[in-house]
Amino acid sequence: MPDSLETRRRRTIVARLYPGEDILQSLQRLVTQYDIRGGQLSLIGAVSQATLGYFDRERSQYHTFSLKEDLEVVSCVGNISRLEDDTVVVHAHMVTADRDGRCYGGHVMEGCTVSATIEVVITEFDRPLMRERDEVTGLNLLKLQ
Fold it and tell me: Nearest Cα to 98, choosing from 43, 42, 47?
């Protein structure tokens, strides 16, 4: 049976990001500004550059790739949590599409730059989400017990 945690919605934050902003950095600032301890997020909009990653399990590290062109953000979903030292963790995956409808997806990394706008919806939970280091994967995974 999977680990789980029951939460309830506390509040919803709606935000707009502006051209030139880095999506991940802006999300981290929003989370800090509103003192969010756990939640989920979604966003849509457009970027002039996307830096995305995928996790190589054999090497236990992220590999990144960048797309430097105007792209639509078709979907971006994720969650918000904290590490034991209170560091904000925004874990999000994004799918972007180019002018021909080709899609590219992966883990959101620094270097995703807003072109026209990004519209963000954050749903805060009434309980914190915490992460701890998993020795097997080397990742900071959700701690739900």
Answer: 47
